[in-house]
Specification:
alpha+beta, globular, six-stranded antiparallel sheet, 454 residues
Length: 454
């Protein structure tokens, strides 16, 4: 029966709306209508069916894979609850259901399309075979996307213990940089990213976008934010060689991306477009944090100084580089993840060649955040501020020496990043907004001191 079962978009919306609008990845207006617009069956038999749906809410499109079973058929040894009921059919979140998880992994090696051809899923396998899977579970700590961990029966067969499959929830027309950049780096033999297993792209109504990606699951790894903040909270303020190694990793990523993708000259038009984005984010931050308004002239001066120096070529970059985007893997060192770029920036900006120093600025700001979180936890402010300066210096030693022009550009990018953080924290974590506000003030103070020296 399930092999041929269908439901109307209206019934689907009514059955799943409460669950969907309460999900951590749902960024639409919770009071607005949701509409199931496209569907592609992934797997179906007599007992269970899994379907990938595209759901519209306002201007946003979401990827929503669902699993269906007839009757109150709770899986054995599972406490996962259905998210809705349509007649005699019960509906599950496929990313949390064992059959749904298996179906999502299977679509990596086989194309799918609905009967009308309105939504076609095309697989792009990087490694066409991998060992049998013994278990799977969904990660519960994420927000904007959903990830599932699959464990191998025989990990030695592939040299890895499993796969992590990411379901992109909010979709934009065009290639997702997280897929495009990591697969390019892996294909070039880079050790800076996990090994890639493949991706799935959806095409509909003239649009095309990545909906799934799978890569090596790095067992025993901890992200740099966790590693460093644990050390700071324990009172360990030594700056180790690992921070210099992180700077060297960043330089390697930029070199490898520069070789994998064509760099372009920073034309006057491209330069003005990037500087205009700085001004736009500054205006937003000054509105969100009125206490910064008196520093508007100093902010604009910092941007203008960077605009008028010689610029390096523009290239593809990580785009949202910070301590939470890097894992420390036992026996391997640092590995970078999540190349999607800043979530508040439109995709059209995130896929454009940019200044590589933007990533450097993001990581330098992240050290300030790590110290700020330790201060919030009761740490000594003076000592942690000194640690921040030392960690930033060590990172730059690993990254490499900058020219005078590059230094001016980096100063502007650090300020731009801090202003972006002001707006982000205002809307997301008001209790943390003092961290980027303090960062803005220190950046401007440092720039003024440098001007006085000159």
């Amino acid at each position: 029966m399930m092999r041929h079962w269908t439901a109307s978009p209206t019934d689907l919306a009514a059955a799943t709306r409460e669950w969907m609008t309460g999900a951590r990845w749902f960024t639409g207006d919770t009071s607005a209508d949701v509409s199931f617009t496209h569907a592609s069956p992934i797997e179906a038999n007599e007992n269970v069916a899994t379907v990938l749906f595209f759901v519209r809410c306002g201007d946003l499109t979401f990827s929503v894979p669902l699993t269906f079973r007839e009757g109150p058929a709770r899986r054995e040894n599972s406490d996962v609850e259905p998210i809705g009921i349509i007649g005699d059919v019960w509906v599950w979140d496929a990313t949390e259901d064992v059959d749904g998880q298996r179906a999502l992994l299977g679509v990596l090696t086989a194309d799918r399309a609905d009967s009308a051809g309105a939504l076609r899923l095309t697989s792009n396998p990087v490694r066409r075979a991998f060992p049998a899977v013994s278990s799977s579970h969904r990660l519960t700590s994420e927000q904007s996307n959903t990830s599932i961990i699959y464990r191998f029966v025989d990990p030695d067969a592939e040299g890895s213990l499993g796969i992590i499959l990411k379901v992109f929830r909010v979709l934009s027309d065009g290639a997702n940089p997280d897929v495009e950049l990591q697969q390019a780096l892996d294909a070039a033999g880079s050790q800076a990213v996990p090994r890639q297993y493949g991706s799935v792209r959806g095409a509909w109504d003239g649009g095309e976008t990545d909906v799934l990606v799978a890569q090596e699951f790095l067992v025993g790894a901890a992200d740099a934010w966790q590693v460093i903040t644990n050390e700071l909270n324990a009172g360990h303020l030594e700056v180790t060689d690992e921070i210099r190694d992180l700077g060297a990793l960043t330089a390697d990523i930029h070199r490898e991306l520069g070789e994998a993708f064509t760099a372009v000259d920073a034309t006057d038009e491209a330069r003005e477009a990037l500087v205009a984005q700085w001004y736009e984010r500054a205006d937003r931050a000054l509105s969100d944090a009125p206490e910064l308004a008196e520093h508007r002239t100093a902010i604009i001066d910092t941007f203008d100084q960077a605009r008028d120096v010689d610029w390096p070529t523009l290239q593809r970059v990580h785009g949202d580089f910070h301590l939470g985007q890097v894992l420390h893997v036992p026996g391997r060192g640092w590995v970078a993840l999540d190349f999607e770029g800043e979530p508040l920036r439109p995709l059209s900006q995130r896929v454009q060649p940019d200044l590589a120093l933007r990533d450097v600025a993001g990581m330098l700001r992240s050290f300030d955040y790590a110290a700020g979180s330790a201060i919030l936890a009761g740490g000594d402010g003076e000592n942690l501020t000194a640690w921040t300066a030392a960690a930033q210096s060590a990172f730059m030693e690993g990254y490499g020496e900058l020219s005078e022009s590059e230094t001016a550009i980096l100063d502007a990018l650090i300020l731009d990043k801090a202003l972006y953080e002001v707006s982000y924290e205002t809307s997301s974590r008001p209790d943390w907004v003092h961290i980027p506000v303090g960062g803005v003030l220190r950046i401007l103070e440092g720039s003024q001191q440098q001007s006085d020296v000159e």
